Each structure stands twice: as C-alpha cells, then as structure tokens.
Amino acid sequence: MSQDRSEGDLRATGLALKHDREWDYELDRIVEEVADRDAETVGLQFPEGLKRRGPAVADDLRDELPDDTQVMISGQPCYGACDLDTYLMRRTDVFVHFGHSPMKESDKIIYVPLFSNVDVFPIMEQALESELPAPDEDPEVGLVTTAQHMNKFDEMRGWLEERDYEVHTRKGDERLTHEGQVLGCNYASAEVDADQILYVGGGKFHPLGLAMEHPDKKVVIADPVNNAVHVADTEKFMKQRYASVHKAMDAERWGVIFCTKIGQGRWDQATEIVENNDDAYLITMDEVTPDRLTNFGMDAYVNTGCPRITTDDGPQFKKPMLTPQEYRIAIGEEDLEELAFDTFHGTW
Amino acid sequence: MSQDRSEGDLRATGLALKHDREWDYELDRIVEEVADRDAETVGLQFPEGLKRRGPAVADDLRDELPDDTQVMISGQPCYGACDLDTYLMRRTDVFVHFGHSPMKESDKIIYVPLFSNVDVFPIMEQALESELPAPDEDPEVGLVTTAQHMNKFDEMRGWLEERDYEVHTRKGDERLTHEGQVLGCNYASAEVDADQILYVGGGKFHPLGLAMEHPDKKVVIADPVNNAVHVADTEKFMKQRYASVHKAMDAERWGVIFCTKIGQGRWDQATEIVENNDDAYLITMDEVTPDRLTNFGMDAYVNTGCPRITTDDGPQFKKPMLTPQEYRIAIGEEDLEELAFDTFHGTW
Question: What pLDDT was estimated at residue B15?
Fold first, then answer.
C-alpha cells in the first residue's frame, strides 16, 4: 500500500515506487487508537512541508478504518508542536499531529514523529575535517540536532566518541522532549561546557537561532540534507535587530501582540507591557503577519509570540517589530549591549 | 473627548477636530455592560476598514473603565458578523463586535452597528435621472442597502415614494437582521416583485453579488461614498466562473474546504461531497488563502465557506476553486446552464 499517492498513484499500474518509503506514519497506531476510542472522527495535522502527503495518508487510513469514520485534514499553517490546531483537536475523537515531538503529552493527541532516513555521517566527517578543531586541540564538543534526526542521536554521539571527542549533551528544559534536541525558539540543550557546538540537521533556521542564543560558542553546521558544512553567522541578523530597535525608539504608539496559538502565548509579558505604558495596546491573534498589523497603523510592535517571526520575518513588516527585551531597550529600560536572542520556555 | 486619536491626538494641542465625529461607538453602553457584569476583561473586534480606529476606542474606554479592566483588541481578520473572533469572545467577560449587524443575538456579544453619516439623497437623485425608468414607465422598484446605511432606510423609502415609486422591500431570511439589508453572501431581501433594484451603498462588492444572485433584475447602484451611479455588470465574473468550472472538469483529486469561522460553516455540504467521492479530502481552516491551499497540491478545490472567497478571490488561487454547485456541474451532476450564484443562509 503506497503512502505517497502525491507522487502519482501507482496502485493500478503494476509499477512499484522506485525509492524506499521515506516516512513511517505509524498508521497501525492510529487505527488502533480509533478502535480503542470508538472514534467517529479523526483529525490529521501536518507541518507545511508535509501537507502534500496529507491526502495519501488519509487514503491509507480510510482503507483501514471503518467506513463511517470521518477523516479531516487541518488546513491551518503549522510550524511546530507549539502550533496545534486546537479547533480540529476539540472537534475530533482522535487528533494526530505529525512531524514534531510532543511539547506536552495529552490523551487527546497522538504525536507521530517523522524521522529522516538520510545518512548523517559523511557530512559529520566533512565537518570534522574542515571546521571542528582536532580532538587533541579541543576535545570538548556539544552535540545537538532536531526532532527529525533524533533517532540517530546516540549513533552520532558514539561516532564522535570513537574519534576521541568528549561529547556534551543535555536535555534542555520542559519545552524539549529529547536529550540534545533544539527548537527554533529554545536552545537550552546547547548550554553545555564546550566552546563548540556541532549541529547536525538541515537548513539554516535552527543553527541561526542557536548561534544567536550562544554567541560565545562556535556553531558548526553539518547539513546532511543539503550536503554542506557551514559556520553559523549571525552578523546580518544582529544588524537587523539593532536597526529595528533604533527605529522603534521614536515610536509613540505600540501594538503588543499576544499570540493565541496554544504553545506561543506569553500572557504575563504581554500584559506587563500594556499595564506600564498608556500608549501600548494589547492585540490578540494567531498568525502574526504584516498584513494583519498594517491595518492597526501603530508606530511599532512587540511580539510576545514566536520569537522567530520577529527575527526572521521582521524585515517584512512595515513597522519595527521587537522582542520583549528589545522593547525594554527601545524605551530605555535596558542597555543595547544587553540585547540577546529571545527564547521561549515552558509549554502551556 | 476625541474618539479619533488615530488621525493625530489633538487633546493636548488646543485644536479641535475639523470634521464631525463620523462614528458612534456607543461607549456608554459598553461601560455599562462592564459594570453590570463586573467584567475584568473586554475584547474589541473591528472590521478591517475600522481596525485603525481600535486604539483610539480603547483609549476612550480605558478612560472610563476601572483601572484594572484589561482591554484587548482582536488582530484576526474580520469581514462580517459571520466572522466573530471566538477565541477572544470565549476569553473575555464582555466582547464587542463593531460595524456589523447581529447575525445571531447572544448575551456574550455586544454588537455596535456603525452608521455612515454620508448624505445618500444626491446620489439617489442622480440614479433616478440616469438609470431608473421614470415612475410612469415602471413604478416598481426594490430597495436594498447595507448595515452601514440602515439608519436611513425609512427615509430612502419615503424619498422614493414621494417621487411616485412603488417601493418593494422585505426582510430576507434569518441571516439578515433588517428589512432591506443585504450581505455579501445573502440577497434574500431583494426577492421582491420588481424588475429593478436600487442598491444604495458604497463599493461594488455587495451589488455584484446582488446582480449575480438576481440575473433577471436590473441592479442600479447609487454609491454615495464614491459619488457614482452604475448598473451592475456580472459578465466578467460569470466568465471567470465558467472558466473555473471547465478547468476543474479534469481534476482527479479534490480538496473540500470546511470553513471553521463561526458563521461560515456548511458541514452537511462539505461532508456530503467527501462521502460520495473517494478522491475528495475534507480540509478544515479559518482563513481560506492561496498559500494555505497550495501546500496540499490538489487538482481543484470546493469551498463550502464564504462564497465571496470563491467568486472574488478565485482567480488568485493556483488551482480552480469552485462553489458546491459548481463542483456538481464539474463532475457532471448538474448542467452548466444551471450555474447560479452561491448564497449562504442560516446562522450557526
């Protein structure tokens, strides 16, 4: 049974898929839960990059489930376990969230982690050769990765230890499920006693936050997806942050965003600002986008929701968009030199 | 006390606003409700065009309310009374929805209608001279308007009757609050015994739907906001609808959208399609946008939510987006000649 009809339905053609199935959707576990709970409705939520697989997963589930089970797919944007579709969750008997590790366990939710099957060791080898100091120079190295490669974490550690590195890892805080795991908003697992951190994973999103949160450490990126080794460079981003803070110093009216997504709310931080500034207004929303803010016509905004909207999407907003600490700097409560990456802790 | 700080705060300058206050936000009624209910939190929701006034309204409210009352402004998009911010409504003691007439009364919600103070009669005069037949030719005329001009409806009727027209009006169905009122998705108030309908109001959005829903009638638009008279022309839109239906005829996989906005859900229509088509998938979302659908990679979509997303925004979607009836035409269950404007009835 193909789980990838999105690349063409091969069932009736006599052909087989040319490559191995990349993801294990754990359909058996879902089917079992539906039976156990006598569920009539099943909600499925996929992150953006996997939404295209949704219909094929729904097909395979419908083949296994009783005929009268209603399968629904969330069409809401989804960028993390902080971003559960609570509407669909409340209205379905079984709710399945794919692709992220649990931020908080709940009977209502089945989390299905999706692990990459890419081989990480060739690119780790390259990282060692080109960017990491040799173990006889500095053997201490921190090791972190994302949920996608978590299944290989112990192997990665062993591989480094075989090469005489002393590998430092930790679990981080309660927002993180696994030892060595990072999120785009939380790098507590990298608070280890080493001057260099090896990040194994795809893309620049996670290591950029990691480098901003730990500016004292060298962050070496071994990217097995794009087959590349980099050292994270935060300069461009830090310049953008300084520029935004400077622009916001003239602001008279502030929009203070409280994000209504289940794992992105920082109520105390949002209300504290509004209570202490008569020219600050509390605005509630789920998706924080330039269009939505433009309509309010404020001079500047403080985003207490996802920090990455502020740092990564910030330049797309027409008015300066600051983190809570950057706001305190802009109004003179803290010094510019103290500017640090905004991280998110706790769950909900 | 100015209710319009968004155009510059004149309180401390000794100047007065040059024009009359345009809107009455009924702050006294809100303050009274807060006292009656001992409310600690107040949520305010404005339609897109009035969001810019939000901060000034919040200022005026905060001046009147006890110091510890928390005022919050909804940052969610809002296009009608069908589009209440249910998150904010559930989490505030008093929830105020500005600018739309009630779709359904509820103790939880204070609806504050906002009436335009523009003079409608000069443009009605012009409409009579240029587009409406003289009363001795055809005295029967239907009269409709939007919530914004509802406060002048009786005067409009009287004005036409003085000029010897026989004015036909009706209340429409339960989705409509007032006699003669139209919504973008419901023109039941225009089902009157007259071949011509006079629509008094701004913009082309409402009369376009009106003309599509009543193709047998001549729809004359008297637009006092833009000071213009037109006859509604649906040709371009109808061509787009035909083109979309034709393109969708080749679709193999269908995304069927169930809209989760409180007044935009048509569950029975959505589930009926999915139950009868193995290649149709139920997708739930609030805002229906091209970006959100692109990620699913279906061949065509059926939108059971707001009909105006389909007809007005349709061309922005990368794949054909059909109304439920258009879907039935595309799969051969109905004839193309039967194609009619999709309207929305009932509340929630």
Answer: 36
pLDDT for A303 equals 98
| Domains B121-231 and B238-338 agree in fold | yes
- Backbone dihedral angles phi then psi of residue B301, each to the nearest 5 degrees: -130, 150
Four-way CATH pick for B121-231: 3.90.1010.10, 3.40.190.10, 3.40.50.11850, 3.30.365.10: 3.40.50.11850
Cβ atoms of residues A327 and A249 within 8 Å: no
CATH topology for the A27-112 domain: Rossmann fold (3.40.50)
What Å distances lie between residue B259 and A68, B266, B282, B284, CA to CA?
21, 8, 10, 6
Residue A70 pLDDT exceeds 50: yes
Burial class of residue B87 in the structure, from the number of CB atoms within 10 Å of its CB (0-12 exposed, 13-18 middle, 19+ buried): middle
Residue A84 · residue B294 · CB < 8 Å: no
Predicted confidence at residue A11, as pLDDT, reads 35
* B227 backbone φψ class: left, alpha, beta (φ>0; ψ -120 to 50): left
Residue A21 has pLDDT above 70, yes or no: no
List residues in chain A touching B: CB distance below 8 A.
Answer: 6, 43, 48, 51-52, 54-55, 58, 62, 70-77, 85, 87-88, 253, 257-258, 260, 271, 274, 278, 281-288, 292-293, 295-298
Residues of B in contact with A75 (CB under 8 A): 257, 283-285, 288, 292-293, 296
Largest CA distance in chain B: 69
Contact flag B43-A297 (C-beta cutoff 8 Å): no
Is residue B181 pLDDT above 80, yes or no? yes
Task: Retrieve residue A194's tokens.
Answer: 């080493």
For CA atoms A267, A272, A273, A275, give the dihedral sign. positive
* Strands B70-74 vs B41-45: parallel, antiparallel or unpaired: parallel
Distance from the B55 Cα atom to the nearest Cα atom in chain A, whole angstroms: 7
Could you give the ipTM of this predicted complex? 0.89
User: What is the mean predicted confidence (pLDDT) over B193-209?
Assistant: 94
Q: Which two structure tokens, joined as six digits, stand for B2?
A: 């100015």
A14 confidence band (pLDDT: 50, 70, 90): very low
CA-based nearest distance B68→chain A, Å? 9
From the list A8, A210, A29, A236, the residue with the least C-alpha distance to A112 is A29
| CB within 8 Å of A177: residues ≥ 6 apart | A101, A102, A103, A147
This prediction has a pTM of 0.90
Asked whether residue A170 carries a pLDDT value surpassing 60, the answer given is: yes
| For chain A, domain boundaries | 27-112, 121-231, 238-338
Residue B22 has what pLDDT? 63
Q: Do B283 and A75 touch (CB under 8 A)?
A: yes
Residue B3, pLDDT above cutoff 60? no
d(CA A294, CA A309): 15
Q: What is the dihedral of CA B228, B229, B235, B241, to 10 degrees?
A: 60
Nearest to B46 by CA among B14, B78, B15, B18: B78
What is the residue-averaged pLDDT of chain A? 92
Q: Which one of A21-35, A201-215, B152-166, B202-216 scores highest in mean pLDDT?
A: B152-166
Q: Domain A238-338 belongs to what topology? A: Rossmann fold (3.40.50)
